[in-house]
Amino acid sequence: MRKKERAEIVLNELKKLYPDAECSLDHKNALELLVATQLAAQCTDARVNIVTKDLFKKYRTVEDYAGADLKELEEDIKPTGFFRNKAKNIKECCIKLIRDYGGEVPDTMEELLTLPGVGRKTANVILSVIFNKPGVIVDTHCSRLTRRLGFTDSDNPVEIEKDIMKLLPRKEWANFSHCMVFHGRAVCHARKPKCEICTILPYCDYGKKTVK
């Protein structure tokens, strides 16, 4: 079976399994999602959602973040880890939003990548979730599962993104990413994947080698 064919079958199976798969970071607008996604680096979405519950009440606008006391902001986001670097990036990001984009979160990959702390993963989250533009979101789950499935040979997020873009229609890129996250959490764990109960086992290179 061709790789492209397998990818479409896997996506359809996972969409049945996780019909509500979507971004699991709590947010009400583009700014909140931008901040939440930066906080999610090396941190679980569940922990980020706990932190942002109070954070988003305290900081409501780009001006609030831009004018924040850095030490205070660090303390506010400390449970997400790497808090010094994250606080610095969030503050500088919002300063740049005010200076260069009229205080609004931009809607193109090129512009988003000019923001401190924003890489392609964060940019694709914003583009797909807020602006409904196609994008492959390569997080740790997506990276792990696409390699196990044999859809990519790379551990480079940019290369993985390109490989998935070749396999699936543009309209399905974000759906695929969200399904990867849900399946990674529920079944395809990093250390002990539950291959024996996995519905996409027949299409998985790793699983077929693991389950005798």
Distance between the termini: 21 Å
Task: Tell me the major beta sheet.
Answer: none
Beta content: under 5%
CATH topology of the largest domain: Endonuclease III, domain 1
According to CATH, the homologous superfamily of the largest domain is Hypothetical protein, domain 2
The CATH class of the largest domain: Mainly Alpha
Q: Helix and strand succession?
A: HHHHHHHHHHHH
Shape assignment: elongated
Report the average pLDDT across residues.
96
Per DSSP, the total helix count is 12
Number of strands: 0
Class from secondary-structure proportions: mainly alpha
Radius of gyration: 18 Å
**In total, how many domains does the architecture comprise?**
2
Q: Which consecutive residue ranges, at least 5 long each, have pLDDT under 50?
A: none
- Can you name the CATH architecture of the largest domain? Orthogonal Bundle
Structure description:
- By secondary structure, this protein is an all-alpha fold.
- It has two domains: 3-22 and 136-210, Helix-hairpin-Helix base-excision DNA repair enzymes (C-terminal) (Endonuclease Iii, domain 2); 30-130, Hypothetical protein, domain 2 (Endonuclease III, domain 1).
- 60% of the residues lie in helices and 0% in strands.
- The chain is built from twelve helices and no strands.
- It has helices spanning 3-17, 30-39, 45-58, 62-66, 70-77, 83-101, 109-112, 120-130, 140-149, 157-167, 173-186, 205-210.
- Helix 9 (140-149) packs across helix 11 (173-186).
- The longest helix is centred in the middle third of the chain and has 19 residues, at 83-101.
- It is elongated and about 55 Å long.
- The protein starts with a helix and ends with a helix.
